[in-house]
Amino acid sequence: MTHQNESPDEFQDVKILLIGDAGVGKSSLARRFAEEEASESPVTTIGVDFKVRYFQLSNDRKFKVALWDTAGAEKFRSLTANYYRGVHAYILVYDVSDTNTFSSLNYWIQQVDWNATNKTAVKLIIANKIDQSNEVNSAQGTSFAAEHAALYLETSAETGVGVEFAACAHRHGSDGYQVRWSES
């Protein structure tokens, strides 16, 4: 978190876009990430919402992470393409208890490929709701991630397992920061 005597200018901005079908838990993950607490009840995102969290790494580098939570409902999909600009990392979320949301990852990865302005942005596949019964196993998720040069992580927004996914970042060339993921 920031200290009162620190200027927001001291923080490097990192934009992360959460995408995936409606109901996979994107908003719950965003809330758990930013506010470190579970959502009281599921909320349907209309358009886009965002959460901000400040990080200071052990090497004193400071980051302002803006996590953009997009609507997954089909009627809002045309709106989300506008939010792909300037993104440092894409988080593609599916629900392990719903095979349809896993199948939809092909659509979402295609949207990233078509709309991303930063072609070196990190892609992270998140298997959410691991506290529920699985219809999609870990091997399927890791295979999909490897096939698309993405990282893979299993989470539960409900219990908080794996949600500390934006734990560190490092300088990548002269044009900005590339997010690196590690589970805390």
Q: Spans of 5+ residues with little confidence (pLDDT < 50)?
A: 1-5, 166-184
Order of helices and strands: EHEEHEHHEHEEE
Number of strands: 8
In whole angstroms, the N-to-C terminal distance is: 17 Å
CATH topology tier name:
Rossmann fold
The total of helices stands at: 5
Question: What is the CATH superfamily classification?
Answer: P-loop containing nucleotide triphosphate hydrolases
Radius of gyration: 16 Å
Summarize the structure.
The protein has five helices and eight strands. It has 184 residues and is an alpha/beta fold.
Structure description:
The structure is a single chain. This protein is α/β, with parallel strands linked by helices and 184 residues long. The protein has one domain: Rossmann fold (3-Layer(aba) Sandwich). The protein has five helices and eight strands; from the N terminus they run βαββαβααβαβββ. It has helices spanning 26-35, 77-80, 99-103, 105-115, 138-147, and strands at residues 12-19, 48-56, 62-70, 89-95, 122-128, 151-154, 168-171, 177-180. It has a six-stranded mixed beta sheet with strand order 2-3-1-4-5-6, with helices on both faces. It has a two-stranded antiparallel sheet with strand order 7-8. The longest helix has 11 residues, at 105-115. The radius of gyration is 16 Å and the shape is globular. Residues 1-5 and 166-184 have low confidence and may be disordered.
